[in-house]
Each structure stands twice: as C-alpha cells, then as structure tokens.
C-alpha cells in the first residue's frame, strides 16, 4: 500500500476550496513564464495567455477570444454513488440535470449557453439503451436552451461518471462575483430551499421503501401530492434561470451574480469575500415556498436550514444598487413571470456576515455560517 | 438489480464508434429546432447554433466565435484502472500525459493550445500532496506549451478520474480529417510503435516484479538501458507535436491531419472514411525506431503490429498532394528537427485500404485491419 498517503495532508483538513487554491499553486509553480516559444518551432503563438480574463473561482471562466465576444466556460463532474444513484427511472432526469446545472453556471455569468462537451465513464456491464436515455435527457434540456452537442469522450469505468463542459457567450459584459459594493441590496430569484426539501422527501421515501413500507405509509403521505411532486421536481429536474439572467442583463444594474448551487449562506460568503464586504441577511425575507414550509413544519425541521444550506436550487443570487432594484424586479417579472426578492444588503467588511432572525423568533443577529455543501468534509 | 440491463444492447456489440453515433442521435432526437426563444424571455439569443462548424468525430470541435478566430475544443476522460494505475512514482508523469494527449488533439487540427479545464475525481482516502503532484505534472506540460489553467471541478469518487477539456485557437483554417484526395501522399512525423513497445516493457517488468524477480532478471535486462528509457518515456511521457503542426500549417499544403492516438491503422481508416478514399500503406516505409526494432526482435514480436495497432504515439499523420511533399518535409525538419516520412498514398475508394508487405516478406498487399484501441471491445 501507499505509505505516503497516510503521512500527507488529508483532503478533509483543507476542504474543497482550500484544495482548489493549493492546486492552482501547484500548477502555477511549474509554469514560470507563459509560452516557451522554442517549442513552437520559432513561430510566435496566436494567442497570449492574457486572453483568460477570469479563471478559477467563479461560475464560469471568461476568455477573450481575439476579435470575438467573451467566451464563458464551465465544467462539472458527477460521479455515481457520490452525486447520483443510477436508477432506471431517473436516467433521463439525470441527463437533464447534468446539463441544467452547467447551463445555470453560464446564466449566472450573464451569458447564453451554446456548446456542450460530454465525457462519460460507462461500466462494462451497461447497455447502449441506458446511455441513450441519459443522452436523450440531456438532449431535451439542450433543445430547450439552444445548446448543441459539440464533442466528448466515452470511456469505460467502474462507476458511471458524467463530465459536462459547457461553453457559452456573454451577452454584454460577463457578471462575476466580485462587483458588489457596501449598500447594494442582495436579491434572489424564485424560491430557495425547495431542492433540499425535495431531497429530504426522496431520502425518507427511499428509507421507507428499504424498510418494506410504501411511500403511502410514510410521514410524507400527509403531504399533498402536488406539494410532493413540486418539491421532488425542484431537486430532480431544476430549471436553469437563463431567461431571468437575460432579463437582468438587458435591464442592467446588476453588480455581481452567482447561481445558488451550494446554498444561500455559501453564496453570500462568496459574494462578500470577492468584494471585501460584509452582509446582513433578513431570514424573514427569504423566499420560501408554501410547500417547503408545510413539509418543514410536519417534519419538525428548520425551514431556514434548507434555504440557507440545502443548495441545488439553481436560482440566481445577485446584488444591485438600491435605486436600480425596483426596476429590476419589475422587468424580470414582466419578461419571465419570475419573482425576485430582496433578502438583505451588503455592508462594510468590518460588520461581518450576519443573519437576522425574524421578529417572532427574537430578531437576533447572528453570524451566518458558510455551510454550503462541501465535497471533502 | 436492473433487469433491463440484461435485455438491452451490449456496448461491446456496437463498439466505441457505434456508441458515439447512437448517442449523437439520442441527443438530436430530443432537439427539434434549435433555440426555444420562449425560454429566453422573448430575447433573441446572441449566438446561432450554426457557430459549430465541426462537431463530433474529429480531434477537436471547431467553433466560430462571432467575430473571432475559430475555437478548437477537445476533451478526454481518464479513469484509474482503465487508462492508468495510480502509483506514487508516476503521478507527475500522469499529469503531464493527461494534458499532453489533449494538446496533441489541438495540434492535430493545426491549432495552438490555450486554456485547460480540469475535472478530477479524488478518492476519499487520498491526500492533498497526491493531487498536487498530478497538478504539478500538468503544470509542467502547460508551461511548455503556454496553456493556462482556466477552471475545473474537484469531486469525490471511488477511483481517480481525470477529465481535461482543452481550448485552443486555429492558426489558419483548422485542418480536419476529411480533406484528403486520391493521389495524396500519407505522411507521419517521427516514429511509430515506440509507445506500444514501451507499454510492452512496462507490463513485462511489472509482471516480473509481481513474480518476485527484479527487472534485471527479466528478458528486458538484455536491452540497453538507453533503449529501455527511450521506449518507456515514449509511452509514459509523450510530447505533443505542436511545433511540427505549426510548421506544417505555416508551410501549407496539408489536406487532412490527425494525431496517432489509436494506431496508424485506425487513423488511416479514419482519413479514408472521411474522404471516401482507399489507401496503400507501405509497411517497409513505416518509421520505426531502432530501439523498437531491437526489442521486437528479442521478444519475438512483430514490430509492424506495434506500429500499426499500438497507438499512443501522438505523432501527426497527414495527407498532402505529392508536389507539396518535398517542401513540407524540408520545412518541418528545418523548423523542428523532426523527420517526416511518406508511408503510403490515398487511392480511389474502390481500391480498399491495403497494407503492402516489404519485399523480403513477400511483397504481398493485404487489407489493412482497423484494429486500433477500442474501449468497449
């Protein structure tokens, strides 16, 4: 066995974001001075590495193609048993979601998705129809948002692995995470926490099934079928907010934007860290669906936890100066039918990142933990 | 268990290329008419899907960014246990090679590599230093060819998984696989078969080790250390032919080009299929290194098999009209020091794809089997 493995630094001790930072350094350490012209046979290369306007650490990279519009690129890897279970009923939904989460990243930069590259690892015992169902699901999502399948790789592996790289183009200037300023309001599209509620339902139904009881015998039987379906679909079949992002870009005034993939808490921390700001989030203002509230009440769960830390809502969270906010909210609702809600405000960095409880829960302001989903803890 | 799995079409029965075709159809079947404008909130999208000039089936996709140079994109997934073993001595080399094979794809289109996106699946028990070594290897290769790390994803998985998506820019017009015409000569850079010879050495040394004998007791002890190192490095640390590709592009006259990743046989079949041509390959002319010849002789192996079917040489194979060939060969040698060899000629499609044995082996012409490496057979 590999003894060095025991002696080294555990992934859990540095966490996902710590790891990313160290890896960028490992790469950089080996890359002293850009292009080695000697290796190009004396020909000077066409593109300077400066084409990379925005690299690691946002929803998508921004590349300035000489003479062209800024290119947006995002990539995501999904592994069976870690990110999904490979079940016959859900292959098509899995395909849809695998592309949707990448489309969401492009939208969160203010861009339009365009070209997808798919690498999939397929177990030797799988059959062609299984892979086709996955692709058909991706194709449905692609058709809805005008994405072309442009390339990929198909390899053998023990477990299913899906890697999507999606390219898009910025419509106007790409919107990063770092443009927020103290005083800007923080807004979110749609509702947050539904995906976590749906996951909760899914897991409890599955454990009921495993215990030999039908879903109808579980606690969830007390939830209306409409609530159940709505919450499950928010988790299994999220809709990327491309139309809302376009409406925001066209209206103008957005200073920073991300999608809610890890949870509102985690995303607020990103927006603050990148801008050197603090924040106050009013928990009473979090847009939480009646269905999620009902489920939380019946399960004895804290609905704020789902909204703040659940993640995978794929809503847009963004900041804008206060005077632009009413117009933005109106414009998005008119163009897309989607509600946009003010959930807080960026503050001076020294004020920290605080969550304010609703008056009926005491109205206390407490530090907001950045407990989004972290793959290595 | 999943009963449909038994009833479906096995991957082995369609093969890797058959699967790719069916998947493209599954995707297309779901994508009736490009962009659904309704989903973009009434805003017409910035890019038409027609930007995709060349999709699945070449070394890299070609995308026409509005106003910009053609973008080249390639992606490759490597899985532990299928494509590599995760050993402490070879992590850095693995990182180098994972990037090198993608750089080779960009070079094979006549482009310059630029921006890399890395997704890696990391086992829970791994430590940070292991991942850093992998990245450091990639960084070395990146520095050599001016590639910037532009983004990626880091996830947990059972086995190590490495997915590289590499973007580059075409220098002049991208060079695809379909431009060859009957009468064009077929040429290859450097030598072919060394990587397969290196893999043979590696596997026999490893089986010796497993049997408790040192490498020095094995047959390979009869090979000079210089030969051994040269062949192992061709397999473990390939150099993408970026400089040679640039020299070819600058000189002009190349009608079709690929890299030799699956083996000369397989690549010749690709060049012929895409152009509707046949081919005659003169086995006597295959550029095979003295080291590979010596190893084949001592091992009682057919050196042509390594050259034709071994793959992973990452040389360039290309076609050009006969009158341009002397100038091309001279130019590449002068600019890069690399030899280029004529190995055959494209013929009329009806003539088939034939291999001609050397005179001392009878001079017979036999159909050339397309037995490159295929992941699912």
> What is the oligomer described by this structure?
homodimer
- Please identify the structural class of chain A as seen in this structure: alpha+beta
Would you identify the CATH architecture of the largest domain in chain A? Alpha-Beta Complex
Q: Give the terminus-to-terminus CA distance of chain A.
A: 24 Å
What would you say this structure looks like, in words?
2 copies of one chain form a homodimer. Chain A has 377 residues and is an alpha+beta fold. Chain A folds into 2 domains: 50-170, 60s Ribosomal Protein L30, Chain: A; 185-367, PurM-like C-terminal domain (Phosphoribosyl-aminoimidazole Synthetase, Chain A, domain 2). The first copy, chain A, has 11 helices and 13 strands. Chain A has a 7-stranded mixed β-sheet with strand order 8-10-7-11-9-12-13, with helices on both faces. Chain A has a 6-stranded mixed β-sheet with strand order 1-2-3-6-4-5, with helices on one face. In chain A, helix 3 runs parallel beside helix 4, helix 5 (194-210) crosses helix 6 and helix 7 (242-251) packs across helix 11. Chain A is globular.
Layout of strands and helices, then pairs:
2 copies of one chain form a homodimer.
Chain A: H1 3-7, H2 11-29, E1 52-54, E2 61-64, E3 70-79, H3 91-108, E4 111-122, H4 128-145, E5 148-156, E6 161-170, E7 185-189, H5 194-210, H6 225-236, H7 242-251, E8 256-259, H8 264-275, E9 277-282, H9 290-299, H10 303-309, E10 316-320, H11 325-336, E11 340-348, E12 353-356, E13 365-367
Parallel strand pairs in A: 4-5, 9-12
Antiparallel strand pairs in A: 1-2, 2-3, 3-6, 4-6, 7-10, 7-11, 8-10, 9-11, 12-13
């Amino acid at each position: 066995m590999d003894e060095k493995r025991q002696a080294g630094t555990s992934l859990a001790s540095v966490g996902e974001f710590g790891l990313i930072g160290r890896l960028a350094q490992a790469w950089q350490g080996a890359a002293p001075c850009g292009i080695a012209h000697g290796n190009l046979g004396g020909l000077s290369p066409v593109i300077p590495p400066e084409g990379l306007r925005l690299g690691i650490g946002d929803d998508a990279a921004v590349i300035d193609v000489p003479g062209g519009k800024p290119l947006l690129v995002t990539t995501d890897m999904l592994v069976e048993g870690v990110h999904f279970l490979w079940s016959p009923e859900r292959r098509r939904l899995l395909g849809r979601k695998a592309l949707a989460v990448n489309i969401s990243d492009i939208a969160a930069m203010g861009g339009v998705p365009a070209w997808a590259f798919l690498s999939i690892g397929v177990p030797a015992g799988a059959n062609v129809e299984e892979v086709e169902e996955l692709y058909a699901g991706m194709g449905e999502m692609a058709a809805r948002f005008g994405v072309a399948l442009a390339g990929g790789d198909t390899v053998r592996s023990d477990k299913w692995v899906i890697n999507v790289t999606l390219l898009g183009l910025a419509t106007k200037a790409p919107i990063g995470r770092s443009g927020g300023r103290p005083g800007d309001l923080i807004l979110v599209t749609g509702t947050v926490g539904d995906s976590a509620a749906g996951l909760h339902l899914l897991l409890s139904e599955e454990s009921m099934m495993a215990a030999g009881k039908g879903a109808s015998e579980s606690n969830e039987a007390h939830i209306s079928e409409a609530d159940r379906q709505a919450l499950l679909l928010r988790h299994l079949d999220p809709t990327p907010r491309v139309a809302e992002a376009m409406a925001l870009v066209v209206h103008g005034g957005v200073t920073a934007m991300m999608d809610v993939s890890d949870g509102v808490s985690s995303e607020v921390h990103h927006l603050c860290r990148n801008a050197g700001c603090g924040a106050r989030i009013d928990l009473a203002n979090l847009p939480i669906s009646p269905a999620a509230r009902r489920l939380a009440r019946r399960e004895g769960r804290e609905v704020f936890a789902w909204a703040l830390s659940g993640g995978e809502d794929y809503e847009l969270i963004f900041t804008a100066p206060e005077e632009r906010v009413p117009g933005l909210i109106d414009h998005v609702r008119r163009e897309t039918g989607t509600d946009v809600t003010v959930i807080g405000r960026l503050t001076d960095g020294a004020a920290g990142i605080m969550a304010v409880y609703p008056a009926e829960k005491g109205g206390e302001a407490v530090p907001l933990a950045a407990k989004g989903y972290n793959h290595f803890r």
